[in-house]
């Protein structure tokens, strides 16, 4: 039995040593694992920083390219606008030319026509313009009133009816 006890004690000692070694190794593994987690977190932070730096670098690289593209697009837009403006100017010039031609044609036609006053003898042409106008009006439109006062009275009369005294005045002037 002593030997059993001794074997039992040795077994227990071996098991205790084994667990003790196991716990020490587990602690070391735990420390190593914690160090690895910290290292991994540091690496993730570094990776994020690298991503941001790469993004900044890409932006810096793309900025001249994008500005160049913008400038090219602006040049294209300006060329298009210039072509459009020159086209509009050409249309305006054509319209102006047409207007000038029509004015010239009208002026030529006007210069060619002889305006003659029909039915008025030559001596009377030198008369006052108002007298000439009145004579022409009385010959061509005998039923129209001649004086402007009579016209004012006509416009003042109600319902377009003439005052009998005004009618007599017009009859006398026409005859």
Tally of helical runs: 4
Q: Helicity, in percent?
A: over 70%
Query: Can you give the mean pLDDT?
Result: 77
What portion of residues belong to β-strands?
Answer: under 5%
The shape is rod-shaped
State Rg. 59 Å
**Mind describing the biggest β-sheet?**
none
User: How many strand segments?
Assistant: 0
**By helix and strand content, what is the structural category?**
mainly alpha
Coiled coil: 26-53
Protein name: Transducer of regulated CREB activity C-terminal domain-containing protein
InterPro entries: TORC_C (IPR024785), Transposase_22 (IPR004244)
Domain Transducer of regulated CREB activity C-terminal: 116-175
What labels describe this entry?
175 residues, mainly alpha, 4 helices, Transducer of regulated CREB activity C-terminal domain-containing protein, coiled coil
């Amino acid at each position: 039995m002593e030997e059993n006890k001794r074997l039992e004690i040795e077994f227990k000692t071996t098991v205790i040593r084994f667990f003790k070694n196991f716990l020490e190794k587990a602690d070391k593994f735990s420390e190593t694992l914690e160090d690895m987690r910290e290292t991994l977190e540091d690496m993730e932070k570094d990776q994020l920083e690298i991503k941001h730096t790469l993004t900044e670098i890409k932006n810096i690289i793309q900025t001249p390219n994008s500005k160049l593209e913008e400038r090219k697009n602006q040049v294209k837009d300006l060329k298009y606008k210039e072509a459009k403006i020159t086209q509009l100017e050409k249309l305006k010039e054509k319209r102006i030319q047409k207007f000038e031609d029509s004015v010239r044609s009208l002026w030529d036609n006007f210069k060619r026509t002889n305006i003659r006053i029909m039915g008025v003898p030559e001596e009377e042409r030198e008369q006052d313009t108002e007298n000439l106008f009145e004579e022409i009006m009385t010959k061509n439109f005998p039923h129209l009133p001649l004086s402007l006062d009579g016209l004012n009275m006509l416009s003042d009369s109600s319902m377009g009816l003439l005052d009998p005294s005004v009618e007599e005045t017009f009859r006398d002037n026409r005859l």
